[in-house]
Write a structure and sequence with these properties.
The protein is globular, with a radius of gyration of 17 Å. The strands form six sheets. Strands 1-3-5-7 form a four-stranded parallel beta sheet, with no helix packed on it. Strands 6-8-10 form a three-stranded parallel beta sheet, with no helix packed on it. It is 0% helix and 19% strand. It is mainly β and 196 residues long.
């Protein structure tokens, strides 16, 4: 049992607890710090309450058994590599109204990811954010997004179509490199530069 008075998990708190399979975070917790569940390789299920506003760097790095993330309704910050190589993760629903960025490598090589819902508050998708998400077939980029950085969707080899929002003016280097199934891309008139 985790105390209901707990407000945050410290750095490396459960790092490499390889037999941990499930954890319920109490609603008193507001942040999950860097490396908290780093390489908890048996962790299949985690309930993140609406009280959590921040998920730290490498917080769930290589939690290779984790399958689903939902109800991230209050998260305003997902730091770099937060879900790096969570290779069983199939679905992510982010319905926060305050998350502005998907940081670099946040979902890097989540090779089973098929569905992700991004919030309407999103403005930035950083480098390698979804690189190597090889089962991701479609993603709706919110019209609030103004910048997608280099290699953001690199090696998303199942992605079939993409619509660039009119809030963007530039497509950065290698954004969709090795998206070998990409058949259709809608580019608005607001785009003035496509980098290679």
């Amino acid at each position: 049992e985790i105390s209901s008075s707990l407000t945050s998990f410290g750095l490396d708190c459960f790092r490499e607890c390889s037999s941990l399979t499930k954890i319920s975070i109490p609603p008193s917790v507001t942040s999950i710090k860097d490396n908290t569940f780093y390489e908890c390789s048996s962790l299949e299920e985690i309930v993140i309450p609406s009280s959590v506003t921040s998920i730290g760097r490498n917080a769930f790095h290589k939690c290779i058994s984790l399958k689903k993330l939902s109800d991230l309704s209050s998260v305003s910050e997902i730091k770099a590599c937060a879900f790096y190589k969570c290779s069983s993760l199939e679905e992510v629903i982010i319905n926060s109204t305050s998350l502005n960025a998907i940081t670099n490598c946040a979902f890097y090589n989540c090779s089973s990811l098929k569905k992700i819902i991004l919030p309407s508050s999103l403005k930035l998708i950083e480098e390698f954010a979804f690189s190597g998400c090889s089962l991701l077939e479609q993603i709706e980029i919110p019209f609030s997004v103004t910048l997608i950085e280099n290699y953001a969707f690199n090696k998303c080899s199942s992605l079939t179509h993409i619509e660039i929002p009119s809030s963007m003016t530039e497509i950065k280097n290698h954004c969709f490199k090795e998206c070998t199934s990409l058949k259709r891309i809608l580019i608005p008139s607001s785009i003035t530069c496509i980098r290679i």
